[in-house]
Amino acid sequence: MKDALHNFFLSMLSCGRDLLPIILVIGFFQIVVIQQPIENFMEMIVGTFFVVLGLTFFLIGLEMGLFPVGESMANALARKGSVFWLIAFSFALGFGTTVAEPTLIAIADEAAHVAAEGGMIDNTEVRKNSYSNGLRYTVAFSVGLAIVIGVLRILRGWPIHLMIAGGYVVVVIMTGFAPKEIIGIAYDSGGVTTSTVTVPLVTALGIGLASAIRGRNPMLDGFGLIAFASLTPIIFVMAYGIAVT
Amino acid sequence: MSLLSSFLEIFLDTFWDVLPIALIIVFFQLAVIRRKLPDAHRVIIGFFYVLLGMTLFLIGLEKALFPVGRLMAEQLTNPELIRKGQAMFGAVSEDGVFDWRAYYWVYIFAFTIGASTTIAEPALIAVAGKANQISGGTISGWGLRIAVAFGVAVGITLGCYRIVTGAPVHYFIIVGYMLVVLQTFRAPKSIIPLAYDSGGVTTSTVTVPLVAALGLGLAESVPGRDPMIDGFGLIAFASLFPIASVLAYAQITEYLAHRKEKKSLE
After folding, report:
1. Cα(A176)–Cα(A172) distance, rounded to whole angstroms?
2. Rounded distance, CA A191 to CA B118, Å?
3. A residues 111-130 near B, CB within 8 Å?
4. Structural domain count of chain B
5. What is the C-alpha to C-alpha distance for residues A221 and A160, in angstroms, rounded to an integer?
6. Helix H or strand E encompassing B101
C-alpha cells in the first residue's frame, strides 16, 4: 500500500514536470508581456490540478491494465501466424484505442462547437453530438485501416516512403474537393490521433511483428505504423466533410 | 454540486468510450489466443484508473487548458499590445487592419511554447534514445530532440502567422509535404520511419488542447478571421515540420560524417 502511494506520487510528479514548461512560459508572458489581471484565475488553478491528477491516474491505469495485456496480445498474435486474426486485431486495436483517446474527444467536441457557431450544422445539442461522434468514429475507422495497411507493409516488406508519398498525393487531391471548413480539422486530426493510448500499443505491435518475422529489422520495420495512422485520418475526415455537407 | 453532476456525466461518457477497447481485449484473449487474462484483478483496477483519469483530465481540460489557450490568444492580440507592435515597425494601419508583423508577440509565444513543451516530452526522449541505438551513435539523442523541438516551434509559429494573415492552410501543408517527400528520397534510409513517427509522437496530450485553443482564440480575435476556416491547422503544422527537421538533421549529420571520412582518407 505504501509502495503504491509512493508510485502514485512519483507519477504525479512526472506529470507535473510535463506541465512545468507550459506553466513557466505562460507565467513569463503574463508577468512580463501582458501584465493584465486574469479572470477565473482560481478555476484555472483547480483545472490544472485536475489535469495533473487525471493524467496520473490515466497513466498508472494504462500501465497496470492496457499496456501489459495489449503488448502480450500483440506479441502472441504476431507469433501465431494467422494473417486473418492479425489483421482483425490490428484494425480493432487502431479503432478501439483511437475512440478512447482523450485529446480526440476534446478536439471533436470543440470542432462541433465551432461548426455550430459558424452555421455549418444546426446549433442543437443532438446535432453537435452526432457531428462530433461522426468525426471521432471516422478518425477511429481510418486509424484502424492505417494499422492494417502498416501491418501488411511489415508482412510484405513494401517500401514505406512510396506509400507515404502516395498517401500525400491522395491528400492533395482530396483537398481540392473538400469543403474548406473541414480542411483545417482534417489536417489536425492526423496529429491528434497519435498520442497517449495509441502510440505505445501500436509500436508494441509493430516491433513484436517485425521481430517475429525472419529477415525484418525491428528497428527499421517496427516503426512507421504511426506514420500511417497520422495520414489516413486526413483523407477520411475530408471524405466525411464532403459527405456531411 | 454542478461539479459532481458534470463529473458523473463525463465519467459515464468515458465509460462508453473505453468499453470498445475492453471488449476487444476480452474477445481476442478468450476467442483467439484462448488463454485466461493474466492478473485479471490488476487489469480491472487499471481500467478503473484509466476511466477516473480520463474523466478528471477532461474536466481539467475544460477548466484550464482550453481557457488558458484562448486567454493567451485574446491577450496577445489585445489592440493595445498590437498598436505598440505596429508603432515598432512603423507600418500604417488601414482602419483596424494591422500589419502581420504587429503580432510579433504571438509568434514569440508560439515559438517558445512549441519548443519548451517538446524538448521535455517523455515520448520524444524515448524515441531519441532508440534513434541513437539504430544509427550506431551517429545520431545523438540530444541532437534529435533539438531537431524535433525546433520543427514543432517553427511549425506552430508558421501556423500562427497563417492564422494572422488568413492564408489557406492547404498551401502551407502541401508545400510542406512536397518538401518532406523530396527529402525522403535523399535522406539516409534508416531514419525515414522514425522521422515520420516523430511527427505524430511529439504532439502530446497536454500540448494538443492548448495549441488548438490558441489557434481558435487567434481566429476569433484577429479581425476578419473565421474560427471555422482559420482556427484549425496548428496541430497539423506541429506534426509536419518535425518530420522535415528530423530528416534535415539526419541529412546534415550524414553529410558531415562523409566529409570527415573523405578528409581522413586524404
Report:
1. 7
2. 14
3. 111, 114-115, 117-118, 120
4. 2
5. 9
6. none
Q: How do the pLDDT tens digits run along chain B, 266 residues long?
A: 577 888 888 888 888 888 888 888 888 888 877 777 777 888 889 889 988 988 998 888 888 888 888 888 888 887 777 777 767 666 555 555 667 777 888 899 999 988 988 887 777 777 777 777 766 777 788 888 899 999 999 999 999 999 988 888 888 888 988 898 888 888 887 778 778 777 766 666 778 888 889 999 898 888 888 888 888 888 889 888 999 998 998 888 888 888 888 888 87
Residue that finishes a domain, picked among B63, B90, B111: B63
What sign results for the dihedral spanned by CA atoms A143, A144, A147, A149? Answer: negative
Which ipTM score applies to this complex?
A: 0.83
Query: Within its chain, how far is the Cα of A126 from the centroid?
Result: 25
B105 and B129 co-located in one domain: yes
Q: Check: CB of residue A61 under 8 Å from CB of residue B48.
A: yes
CA dist B233 and A9 (Å) reads 36
Of A219, A236, A222, nearest to A144 by C-alpha is: A236
Check if B74 contacts A (Cβ < 8 Å): no
Note the pTM of the prediction, 2 decimals: 0.84
In a domain, residue B109? The reply is: yes
Q: Quote the domain boundaries for residue B230.
A: 77-265
Q: DSSP letter string over B217-260?
A: HHHHHSTT--HHHHSS-HHHHHHHHHHHHHHHHHHHHHHHHHHH
Q: Are B232 and A185 in contact (CB under 8 A)?
A: yes
User: Do B194 and B105 fall within a single domain?
Assistant: yes
As to burial, measured by CB atoms within 10 angstroms (0-12 exposed, 13-18 middle, 19+ buried), residue B22 is buried
CA distance B228 to B173: 18
Q: Which of B30, B37, B238, B231 shows the shortest CA–CA distance to B153?
A: B238
Instruction: Kindly state whether residues B243 and B125 are assigned to the same domain.
Output: yes
Which of B210, B208, B195, B206 shows the shortest CA–CA distance to B241?
Answer: B195
Interface contact A35, partner B, CB < 8 A? no
The DSSP letter of residue B135 is T
Q: Chain A to chain B, count of Cβ pairs less than 8 Å apart?
A: 328
Please calculate the CA angle B207-B211-B213 and round it to the nearest 5 degrees. 125
The DSSP output letter for A37 is -
Q: In whole angstroms, what is the distance from residue B186 CA to residue B180 CA?
A: 10
Radius of gyration of chain B (CA): 23
* Residue indicated by cell numbers 508583423: B101
Inter-chain touch A64–B45, beta carbons under 8 Å: yes
The reply to whether B10 touches chain A by the CB within 8 Å rule is: no
